Amino acid sequence: MCRIAGIVSGRLPIGEIRDKVNQMCRAQQHGGPDGDGVFYDENVGLAFGHRRLSIIDLSSNGSQPMADHHQKARITFNGEIYNYPDLKIELLQSGAKFKSDSDTEVILQAYVYWGTAAFSKLKGMFAFALYDIEKNVTYLVRDTAGIKPLYYATANQTLVFASEVRAFKAAGLHTENDGEWQIRLLAFGNIPEPYTTLKNVFSLPKGHFLSWDNKTAGYTLNSYCADEPLNTVMHTEEARQLINFTLNKSVKRQLVADAPIGVFLSGGIDSSLIALLANQYKKEQLKTISIFFDEKSYDERAYQQIICGKINGQNFSHLVKQGDFENAFPQVMKAMDMPTTDGINSWFISKYAHENGLKAVLSGIGADELFGGYPSFKRIKYLGYLRKLPGRLLRSLSFLAPGNYKRLSLLGIDHPVAAYLVLRGLFLPEDIAAILDTDTKHIKEVLFSSFGDAVPDTYDNEHASWFETELYMQNQLLRDTDVMSMSHGLEVRVPFLDEDFTRAAKSVAPSIRFNAQQPKKLLIDSFSSLLPTEIWSRPKMGFTFPLQNWMTELDQMSDINSFKGKKAREIITKFKNNNLHWSKAFALYQVQNHG
Predict the structure, then answer these.
(1) What's the CA gap between 344 and 336, in Å, rounded?
(2) Parallel, antiparallel, or unpaired: how do β-strands 202-203 and 261-264 relate?
(3) Nearest to 184 by CA among 366, 352, 420
(4) What angle in degrees, to the nearest 10, is found between the helix axes of 479-486 and 322-335?
(5) Which residues are documented as binding site?
(6) 497 half-sphere exposure, CB direction, 13 A CA radius
(7) Which of 31, 237, 423, 485 sits a CA distance of 20 to 30 A from 512?
(8) Cα separation of 51 and 61, whole Å?
(9) Helix count (H) and strand count (E) of the chain?
(10) Are residues 11 and 81 in contact, defined by beta-carbon separation less than 8 angstroms?
(11) Which residues neighbour 37 within 8 Å (Cβ) at sequence distance 6 or greater?
């Protein structure tokens, strides 16, 4: 796990390219505190930069940017390849030579022997740039689940890329703000891919590679993903065995590390299951990291202790108080690469994991999306019924309906993403227009013009799963987890998003994978002998902080005079009177204070 950056340009002097790549790497130093390196080719006008967080092969042999044995290619790589031992055996049989034990070198040799077909063979979380010296081509590649970030810009015959958006600004490249990011944040609570806060800086789509011709400065964007699995598992017992086998396999191979590794343990189903499985495969005692609160309605210590009692390891449990939140708030804001209404919890637990000596942890992200763990899975069908009402009637609800029911007016917009904003959106287009002093038509154009045919227009569990995976998890959970953990030099691995596991889960017929009465029933039943009843039979809490109370007491959030505009002040007044969810106030705060 590291941070990467680079520039390929036939226009800029090589000295300037090298200096700017160094600046980009320094801006991302927190994500790679163990070392750095820069490779440049002045004949091409290319420089690759790297900040290293050593997890596999801690020796200098694992340093980057790295070349293959025959100097045919160079790579700067962020992430982990979990099946690299198997790929290495296959490559050795083909005649490949290795000088390190790193997964980075396996990527290089895989490309040398198999070309771009190698990308689909990689199983893990990754984002990398690879320079084919003979073909004079640069590739940018991102994993199929979009776990690792990779941002790029193409202008003036120049390719620029980095792991974080802040790196572009630090090097004085593409510094112009995208004037529409505020609209997206106020609606979604995040900035959906491929957009960023900077104009013409985009996120590379997951499961894709960008091929850049270093000579002509032309490029193509290509998918390397395999086809979605068909619903081939039609029997419950077969599904349970498949889920059990593939999750065990995922956890086992994601524990591979030459540095200390542990598990985030919240006490919910997903983290508890990951911890219990990891305990079976960890050769030494497993370390788990937990957070608890004085506020009893948020305190999950009792459930954390149930799991800890079944693990042969050490639990590091940390009390977080309102004072801790207030003191850390400036650091949390600084750690954000882009504005978001999530990530505070990830910042704290990553901080404690780092302080307790861990360099990598396993997380339970992804299970809710795959197995129907969110309220949206129950609500989605009702939205389908409402969509059949006349659009004019639905749109009138923005004026006639009380409170949160006003969001149903979005169903009057002929676009599938409108349903997502009913389920998870923050502000209505009319409110966003008032906040930003623009017209509602412009707001709707921005919100609904950027999603193509991939959005399903059905109202069933698979639709809800698509929403939660592609819009919520992708743009909020994964991005915030990555940037907040890496701000503490910590790697977060996500076994539920392992390629083999997600493919297995999606091969199960929806009638078995989702259950209306018991969320995540298939997952629970697949591990009925391992997962204690107390863990799954309680109401879902989620890994949340008491932020409604804490944000209200935070000076920056409650000072009406620090907010500009009549609408913004009305919103903050509602928040102070506890009539508004903290996430809306937090989004508004960032819109008015983001640099």
Answers:
(1) 9
(2) unpaired
(3) 420
(4) 100
(5) 103, 291, 363-364
(6) 26
(7) 423
(8) 15
(9) 27, 17
(10) no
(11) 49, 50, 52, 63, 64, 65
Distances (CA, A) of 397 to 392, 415, 435: 9, 17, 20
The catalytic residue among 2, 25, 225, 308 is: 2
Largest CA distance in the chain: 72
Q: What is the DSSP letter of 539?
A: P
CA 225 to chain centroid? 18
List residues forming the annotated binding site for ATP.
291, 363-364
Residue 2 annotated as catalytic: yes
Q: What is the pLDDT along the chain (595 residues), one digit of tens a residue?
A: 589 999 999 999 999 999 999 999 999 998 777 778 999 999 999 999 999 776 655 655 567 899 998 899 999 999 999 999 999 999 999 999 998 889 999 999 999 999 999 999 999 999 999 999 999 999 999 999 999 999 999 999 999 999 999 999 999 999 999 989 999 999 999 999 999 999 999 999 999 999 999 999 999 999 998 777 777 899 999 999 999 999 999 999 999 887 889 999 999 999 999 999 999 998 678 999 999 998 887 888 999 999 999 998 899 999 999 999 999 999 999 999 999 999 999 999 999 999 999 999 999 999 999 999 999 999 999 999 998 889 889 888 887 777 788 899 999 988 889 999 999 999 999 999 999 999 999 999 999 887 765 677 789 999 999 999 999 999 999 999 999 999 999 999 999 999 999 999 999 999 999 998 999 999 999 999 999 999 998 876 655 789 999 999 999 888 898 899 999 999 999 999 999 999 999 999 999 987 5
Q: How far apart are CA 485 and CA 162, in angstroms?
A: 17
How wide is the angle at C-alpha 115 spanned by C-alphas 109 and 118, nearest 5°? Answer: 70
Instruction: Give the single-character DSSP code of 374.
Output: S
Domains and CATH numbers, the chain: 2-178+195-223 (3.60.20.10), 236-368+477-535 (3.40.50.620), 546-595 (no CATH)
Q: Say if strands 35-41 and 66-67 run parallel, antiparallel, or are unpaired.
A: unpaired
Residue list for the binding site for L-glutamine: 103
CA distances from 136 to 73, 133, 139, 211, 430 (A): 10, 5, 10, 11, 50
**Which tokens hold the place of 202?**
């985009």
What would the two tokens of residue 42 be? 């002045």
Alpha-carbon span 593 to 577, nearest angstrom: 22
Spatial separation of the C-alpha atoms in residues 421 and 413, rounded to whole Å? 11
Under 8 Å between Cβ of 152 and 174? no
Report the SS3 class of residue 6: strand
The residues near 211 (Cβ < 8 Å, ≥ 6 apart) are 116, 137, 138, 139, 219, 220, 221, 222
